[in-house]
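Customer ticket, subject: "Can you confirm the structure for Biotin synthase?"

Message body: Hello, I'm evaluating your service for our small team and ran a test protein. I'd like someone to confirm that this is what the system normally returns, since I don't have a reference to compare against.
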Amino acid sequence: MALKHDWTKEEILEIYNKPFMELLYEAATIHRQHHDPNTVQVSTLLSIKTGGCPEDCGYCPQAARYHTDLEGNDLMSVNQVKAQALRAKASGSSRVCMGAAWRNVKDGEEFDNVLEMVRTINKLDMEVCCTLGMLTENQAQRLAEAGLYAYNHNLDSSEEYYKKVISTRGYQDRLDTIGNVRKTNVTVCSGGIIGMGESEADRAGMLVALSTLNPQPESVPINALVPVEGTPLEEQKPVPIWDMIRMVATTRIVMPETQVRLSAGRTQMSREGQAMCFFAGANSIFAGDKLLTTPNPDVNEDMEMFKMLGLNPQKAFEKKSQPESVDAENSKYKSQGEKPKWTRPAHKIDRNLEAQQKAKTKA
Ligand code: SAM
Ligand code: DTB
Ligand code: SF4
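Agent reply: Thanks for trying us out. I re-ran your input and got the following:
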């Protein structure tokens, strides 16, 4: 059946608010039509450049302007990354997702090093994902040529609520970056966070924005906010597991072929809660005791959970074949020295300004 690309907010809200058992049954049925319900893709996150970020994302411990207890790090070396990727592979991950606390990618030595990291991990026969901030078309092509499998760039919320969380860039910048990735062979990973104070309509709005992309993203991470002290969202209440299950189920229904990733926030979820998410259509997780900067369940605990539920980790390149890695000297793309004009809306977000003020007094 052809995928539907014209979902409306009303239709999605109606699904989200169905009686729980109906919602679960519908989502599980669609899940089985498109995926093996006993297979879950496992990714390992690696923060290759931590902290010191110039953006004001209200949820993020890596934003330099807030006072969090985070130890920042410059870009890792290719060798360090290779060693971590080998560890991830040995522990059963099929994908490494490298995150950098950057607003956008800048051409130069650091980006050249990231391209080398991509080549190195792809040559270990693992899927490579990067999340590096905004990206031009040329930069996306260079990552593709190096052998990148996926690019993560979250919409994070509805367009309306995005303005209440971030003021240093606009929603359209995110969509444009996703568009740039789409022009290449690299798959798109884009999702968001729930539990930031958004309404159900905002959750549905985010799913409209994602599901009306054509093609729909190959993977959609659903994160539960990890509230970090010092960030503007430090006092948000934990998101109820029921909301997480509803969000996963709704995502599964509106994007049947997508891999739905049960992402941040699993340390707060029981195994029963996570099992319900898998039943509702989640078929990917982040494994390893750390996400980018915050804790995640221990790998052994996750493998125990998989055993208990009869789940098997997905093999690398099961959904799409392995890209080739072109070495740097044979690259047909050169840095274009572009200085893209990503927007800076700079509207006022009171809770962001307050958190920034508090950080100044603490300094
Ligand atoms: N700097 C790049 C960017 O913003 O696109 C890449 C790294 S950024 C940390 C990647 C994603 O992590 C964000 O889009 C957000 O969805 C997620 N994230 C960050 N802090 C989080 C938190 N406290 N809880 C849940 N998810 C979070
Ligand atoms: C995504 O959607 N979640 C991951 C990954 N993509 C990059 C990041 C979660 C970060 C949680 C907060 C932290 O550990 O810093
Ligand atoms: Fe920077 Fe990304 Fe964190 Fe925003 S989410 S502050 S862009 S690292």
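A couple of notes from the result: The chain has one domain: 9-362. Residues 59-60, 62, 99, 101-102, 131, 133, 153-154, 156, 193, 223, 225-226, 228, 264, 292 surround S-adenosylmethionine (ligand 1) (CB under 6 Å). Feel free to reply with more questions.
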